[in-house]
Specification:
Layout (H helix, E strand, L loop, with lengths): L2 H4 L1 H14 L10 H10 L6 H12 L8 H22 L3 E2 L2 E2 L1 H4 L2 H20 L3 H23 L8 H27 L2 H28 L9 H4 L5 H9 L1 H11 L6 H12 L3 H20 L6 H22 L1
Antiparallel strand pairs: 1-2
Helix pairs in contact: 2-5, 3-7, 4-5, 4-9, 4-16, 5-7, 5-8, 5-9, 7-8, 8-9, 9-10, 10-15, 10-16, 12-13, 12-15, 13-14, 15-16
């Protein structure tokens, strides 16, 4: 069963709290930053991070009331990073809608991202200072990973460990914080360590899944081969150029031009697709998921811990099927 169905009452609490933080049912129409934040945050998104907080909390027997603030803050931190990412990437669509930077401009997008981030940290400060401290460390790690990704663009010498480090920072650190937050509320240091490790490894797997979808064209949120078009190294591309030096030179030559035509992008993407790198990428993603499950230790045997395992395995099955299609 889809965990989001079982956890719907909790997610409804999260949605209600998000609405309240973002101005309620009748926000001031002249508040541009709030309108931009609502445009991204309300009525869209998988709420993966709030659901993770809930599953982690259930594993430790923490009540929903003690988890909502952490879940909402995780979603706001994530949304803030998306607003900033869309400015960096000049993104045009997010969750099936024009991005905030497309509709209101880069200044509003950056400032609305800052508004969400400060709101998340302020909410946490009223709950537990330890949560604020670890959330700040997480935001710092996410920021450094984001600039590492930007600086790695066009660098065909990027290694797999470097790519995984970026994925851990951008995605895994916040997934890990979801577990850390639930364990902090529960006062369980062993769970905090294990949940953080699980979140980090599953975050790397999530990033690998995004990379795979970029090549297969199964990501509804962006066009196929978008990473190649933006000169962004992803997992299948790294594996493909490691296998084929001629393909490496072709991509390097294409990236050396000021503009890439859609035809050239498709040509290079097809070469990556048929290189066998996709199957290797799926294997590596599954290895990350296995490592994440191992990190849970005894918590994987708990009824709610099994939901974490199921959530991770569902990711692998879905990507593997799409990759083979």
């Amino acid at each position: 069963m889809d965990p989001s169905v079982a956890f719907r009452p909790f997610l409804e609490q999260v949605e209600s709290s998000l609405l309240t933080q973002l101005g309620g049912p009748s926000p001031r129409p002249e508040d541009t930053l709030l309108a931009a934040a609502r445009h991204l945050c309300l009525g869209g998104g998988k709420r993966a991070r709030p659901m993770l907080v809930k599953i982690f909390g259930d594993t430790l027997g923490v009540s929903d009331a003690k988890l909502v603030d952490a879940a909402v803050s995780a979603e706001l931190i994530h949304a803030s990073s998306l607003l900033h990412d869309d400015v960096v990437d000049n993104g045009m669509f997010r969750r099936g809608k024009p991005t905030v930077n497309t509709r209101w401009g880069n200044i509003v997008a950056v400032m609305s991202g800052d508004l969400l981030l400060s709101g998340a940290l302020l909410a946490l400060s009223r709950v537990d200072a330890r949560l604020t401290s670890t959330a700040l460390a997480t935001v710092q790690e996410m920021t450094r990973a984001a600039i590492d990704e930007v600086q790695a663009r066009g660098n065909l010498e990027l290694t797999l460990p470097q790519l995984k480090k970026i994925g851990e920072g951008k995605t895994g650190s916040l997934f890990g914080w979801c577990g850390l937050a639930a364990a902090t509320v529960a006062g369980n240091e062993d769970a905090a360590r294990r949940f953080d490790a699980f979140g980090r490894r599953i975050g790397v797997a999530f990033q690998m899944a995004d990379d795979i979808r970029d090549i297969t064209g199964t990501d509804e949120g962006k066009p196929q081969y978008a990473d190649l078009s933006s000169r962004t190294l992803n997992l299948p591309v790294i594996l493909a150029v490691q296998k084929d030096q001629r393909l490496k030179r072709r991509i390097g030559d294409a990236w050396g031009w000021t503009a890439l035509t859609p035809e050239k992008v498709r040509e290079l993407g097809t070469a990556v697709l048929v290189s066998g790198a996709l199957d290797e990428a799926i294997v590596l993603m599954n290895q990350e998921i296995d490592a994440a499950v191992d990190a849970l230790g005894p918590y994987a045997q708990h009824e709610s811990g099994a939901n974490l395992v199921m959530w991770a395995r569902t990711l692998a099955q879905g990507i593997a099927l799409k990759g083979a299609a």
